[in-house]
Write a structure and sequence with these properties.
Structural class of chain B: alpha+beta
Strand content of chain B: 25-35%
Order of helices and strands of chain B: HEEHEEHEEHHEEHEEEEHHHHHEEEEHEE
Radius of gyration of chain A: 24 Å
Number of helices of chain B: 12
CATH superfamily of the largest domain in chain A: Aldolase class I
CATH class of chain B: Alpha Beta
Radius of gyration of chain B: 20 Å
CATH superfamily of chain B: Aminohydrolase, N-terminal nucleophile (Ntn) domain
Helix content of chain B: 25-40%
Distance between the termini of chain A: 62 Å
Largest sheet of chain A: 8 strands, parallel
Helix content of chain A: 25-40%
Oligomer: heterodimer
CATH topology of the largest domain in chain A: TIM Barrel
Strand order of the largest sheet of chain B: 8-3-10-1-16-15-17
Strand content of chain A: 15-25%
Bound molecules: iron/sulfur cluster
Largest sheet of chain B: 7 strands, antiparallel
Largest interface: A-B, 39 and 46 residues
Strand order of the largest sheet of chain A: 11-21-20-18-17-14-13-12
Number of domains of chain B: 1
CATH architecture of the largest domain in chain A: Alpha-Beta Barrel
Number of helices of chain A: 15
Structural class of chain A: alpha/beta
């Protein structure tokens, strides 16, 4: 059969620099680099290269680079190279196209169209090096009324809340889709940072129960690895209804990623595909969700907040309003640019909406209905920097989840090939040889560095606005101005245009 | 102000309170007799004159408590009208709801530096028993909603004072001129607060001056809060409409919500809007720590950041409070039964040259004074 598909990338080896050490051959799990002993030459099979930079980074002679191929089709703005190749691919296999990480499509990134305010003259900015700057955050439902006891102390209805030292958490990534070393790095970093990581839908490896104080356990439609100890192992339980990268469908972990340990943790046979169904089979409407929320509360003695995670879809505000009345303590919303370990490409690239619009719409709706304080609001789906965090909080979020940035800190190079299970960086793989490449002792420190750096920047920006406590930033939309946005976009975001 | 004069002022409309957000600097002062002695308003006028440079002639005002001993149980409505038509409409609206015992123009006198005054009227009334019997709201809430209705629905009418046995007097001009304009020399009360404004908009509208009032609460405020929109959006969840877009308005609503509606003690209200830092809370003994953690968490969006000093007047009491970093000056003093608070010590010394003690209240530490209960 003719292979219609030409490689996207070319491996360029500078022969003058190459010392023929063959590191590249050993490092590339995709078997791109080959050494021909007879001819004593190194050559590369470009068709297998996913552009993950492993060989480039580890080449001691710095002799390698990967370039985008200049081999091309006749240019067309309609039938682009990607579209043509996808059609060839489907004609070859008859299958659904799979991809991973967040959509590469050019949807508007509203974070980059919002500007942050700062103080000048009429009120002072605050220097975070000289004054306390508070970013501690509580997540969960808030009581409304206070009763005084005889002795002047107060009595309020108590709701379980999560306490975060900084308003950033690691979003759900399952053991199975990512490696144990990746999970271990996330857990240890969360512990050190006073925040939470999220198990994702793959259960919890027995070695990680000791990080219980910084764990959120997830219950998804497949119910993999869910049992009583698991539910009680975390500080909160997240019911996963949907994910920004693939709203409306379930999860798919290919059998080749399911070795003995993943199999034991997930409580499924080795080598079988782990397919979580699109809906929860016990949730067909909002009142069913309420029942699941309360059965989980029963199972954990009403001690843990329940998070409901949904993908941002068109009717998000109404859905969130329903969830806020379902007994859930926290709503997590994941936008279209959110990452994934594997998703059908068409869904990842076409279903859902940007998190910024979803967040603004939900926060506004919950306030209009007077139920904003019933729930904490966490957003995810491409929070790329501390500035995005500040903007998300000013729009109305309580905290954010980060996934992709956490993986980048661990060495991910966004080659978007996680679904293949051959991650050269030891992250999205279960191959023990590859997993060993990720050292959790180093990994967790890099995560701690990243989140600390962001926290410092958040404080810096808050200080500039004259705000010394994160709660005064939350929902403070006057601190944002749009740039280059239409009237309608401004209306949905609930902000003014720069200059207004 | 007649129609011809008003045309000249029409450009001001665009930058009026409510149409834009206006930061402003200010001078404030207040004094309170614990024994309930009737203190002269004129002291407040004099004190403000000492802080002349903290205002820019674009707004001044005063609030007095215990000033209407002849009508202690009547709501005293002070209302600005742009024209006679607004007055007729408002009066017919009020008369079907309130039994009005007395109505009059508030006495004023011509003063150099005061111009563009609206028609200023005052009414003493009680809620009609009939209305009271039929409304689902409690009486205070009903009165509050009446005021909001007039202010938002009747064009050209603005109720700027609506408590019992208290009143606000305010206008555009330097505070000492506004005081003279309202003939404050004729008034006495157990508590006075005062405000001089340095706004950053073009003036023109008397309603935009301070104190800001709702029921018996009055607020004078100096500062620009950076938490404004977080506070405003939280208050709007509970049905408060922030129409003026000023800090003072939202602070007044926060206090009304926490103190009147949620029945929080004022010292706890202070801990909500200017709480100690987490690092301080963590070091407190358990009971206090738990209380402050709970309050900070549940009313997180009512925390106010940015510089402010406020003086709250209410029936029987006065509270002064600084932001938690103390980014605005505020000094307090005591002499016999009277407690003084002001932006600058000179203002206090101008009316009380030898106080028994003066101090500078720490950020977030409220100064609360109340009338001594009889028999104590
Ligand atoms: S897949 Fe990665 S390691 Fe292999 S050749 Fe390409 S860039 Fe290098
Ligand atoms: S996790 Fe690994 S496979 Fe996935 S995008 Fe990152 S580097 Fe590529």
């Amino acid at each position: 059969m003719i292979d219609y598909i030409q490689p996207d990338y070319e491996v360029v080896r500078n022969k003058d620099l190459c010392i023929k050490c063959k590191v590249c051959v050993r490092q590339c799990a995709n078997e791109v680099h080959q050494y021909d002993e007879k001819r004593d030459v190194l050559y590369a099979d470009n068709s297998k290269c996913v552009n993950c930079h492993r060989c480039v980074t580890l080449c001691p002679a710095k002799a390698l680079k990967i370039v985008k191929t200049d081999h091309c089709f006749k240019p067309s703005a309609n039938y682009t190279t990607e579209i043509i190749k996808d059609i060839y691919r489907q004609a070859d296999t008859g299958g659904v196209l799979l991809s991973s990480m967040g959509t590469p499509k050019d949807y508007p990134v509203y974070w980059d169209k919002m500007l942050i305010n700062a103080s000048q003259v009429t009120n002072p900015s605050i220097d975070p090096l000289r004054e306390p700057m508070e970013i501690k955050t509580f997540l969960g439902r808030k009581p409304e009324t206070v009763k005084y006891r005889e002795d002047g102390s107060i009595e309020v209805e108590k709701f379980p809340n999560l306490e975060l030292k900084t308003p950033i958490m690691f979003s759900a990534m399952s053991y199975g889709s990512i490696s144990k070393n990746a999970h271990l790095s996330l857990a240890r970093a969360a512990e050190q940072l006073g925040i939470f990581y999220n198990t994702g839908e793959g259960g919890l490896h027995e070695d990680l129960y000791k990080y219980s104080l910084n764990t959120i356990v997830q219950v998804a439609s497949g119910r993999f690895g869910v049992h009583e100890d698991y539910l009680n192992a975390g500080q909160a339980i997240e019911i996963k209804i949907g994910q920004g990268a693939k709203p409306g469908i379930g999860g798919h972990l290919p059998g080749k990623k399911i070795g003995p340990e993943v199999s034991r943790t997930r409580m499924i046979p080795m080598g079988t595909d782990a397919i979580s169904p699109a809906p929860h089979h016990d949730i067909y409407s909002i009142e069913d969700l309420r029942q699941l929320v309360f059965s989980l509360k029963e199972a954990t003695n009403y001690k843990k907040p329940i998070i409901v995670k949904i993908a941002a879809v068109h009717n998000i505000a109404a859905i969130a309003s329903g969830i806020a009345r379902s007994g859930a303590d926290i709503i997590a919303i994941d936008g279209i640019r959110g990452g994934t370990g594997a998703a059908p490409s068409r869904i990842r690239d076409n279903v859902g909406m940007p998190i910024e619009l979803a967040l603004a719409a939900v926060d506004t709706r919950l306030r209009d209905e007077g139920i904003r304080n019933n729930v904490g609001l966490v957003v995810a789906g491409s929070i790329r920097s501390s500035a995005d965090v500040v903007k998300a909080i000013a729009l109305g979020a309580d905290a954010v989840y980060i996934g992709t940035p956490a993986l980048l800190a661990l060495g991910c190079h966004l080659c978007r090939s996680c679904h293949a299970g051959k991650c050269n960086w030891g992250i999205a793989t279960q191959n023990p040889e590859l997993v060993r490449r990720l050292n959790p002792d180093i990994g967790y420190k890099r995560l701690v560095n990243l989140v600390n750096a962001w926290s410092h920047e958040i404080m810096e920006m808050m200080g500039g606005m004259g705000i010394n406590s994160i709660e005064a930033l939350r929902g403070n939309r006057l601190m944002l101005r749009g740039i280059g946005l239409s009237e309608k976009e401004l209306e949905i975001l609930g902000i003014k245009h720069a200059g207004e | 102000m007649d129609e011809i004069e008003r045309m000249v002022n029409e450009v001001d409309e665009k930058y009026r309170e409510g149409n834009v957000r206006i930061p402003s600097g200010c001078a404030i002062c207040g004094y309170f007799s614990k024994k309930g002695r009737a203190l002269p308003a004129i002291d407040a006028v004099d004190a403000m004159a000492y802080m002349h440079d903290r205002s820019n002639g674009l707004g001044g005002g005063f609030a007095g408590y215990g000033i209407y001993p002849d009508f202690p149980d009547h709501y005293a409505f002070h209302i600005f009208y742009d024209n006679e038509h607004a007055r007729e409409e408002t009066e017919s609206f009020l008369k079907i709801r309130f039994d009005i015992s007395n109505m009059e123009r508030i006495p004023t006198k011509k003063v150099y530096g005061i111009s563009g005054a609206p028609l200023i009227w005052r009414y003493f009334g009680r809620l009609e028993p009939e209305v009271k019997a039929h409304t689902e709201l409690d009486e205070e809430e009903y009165v509050c909603q009446t005021v909001i209705h007039i202010n938002t629905k009747i064009k050209g009418a603005y109720v700027f004072s609506s408590g019992k046995n208290m009143g606000v007097f305010k206008g555009v001009g330097f505070p000492e001129d506004v005081g003279e304009y309202y003939r404050l020399g004729d008034y006495k009360g157990y508590c006075w607060t005062a405000h001089g404004r340095y706004p950053t908009n073009t003036p023109g509208w008397w309603g935009g001056a301070h104190p800001f009032n709702i029921l018996n609460y009055t607020i004078v405020h100096n500062g620009e809060i950076s938490s404004y929109d977080a506070n405003r959006r939280f208050m709007e969840i509970y049905g408060y409409k922030c129409t003026l877009l000023t800090d003072t308005e939202v602070i007044t609503y926060i206090i009304d919500y926490l103190n009147r509606k949620r029945k929080l003690k004022l010292e706890d209200v202070a801990k909500v809007i200017a709480p100690p830092f987490w690092s301080q809370i963590e070091k407190m003994e358990e009971k206090e720590r738990e209380k402050l953690t709970t309050l900070r968490n549940m009313y997180a969006s009512l925390l106010i950041t940015g510089p402010f000093s406020i003086i709250l007047g209410y029936t029987g009491g006065m509270m002064a409070l600084n932001d938690r970093l103390k980014l605005r000056s505020m000094v307090a003093a005591e002499k016999d039964d009277v407690t003084y608070v002001a932006s600058e010590e000179c203002a206090i010394r101008s009316i009380c040259p030898n106080p028994d003690r003066t101090w500078s209240p720490a950020g977030g530490e409220p100064v609360i004074v109340e009338l001594e209960k009889e028999g104590r």
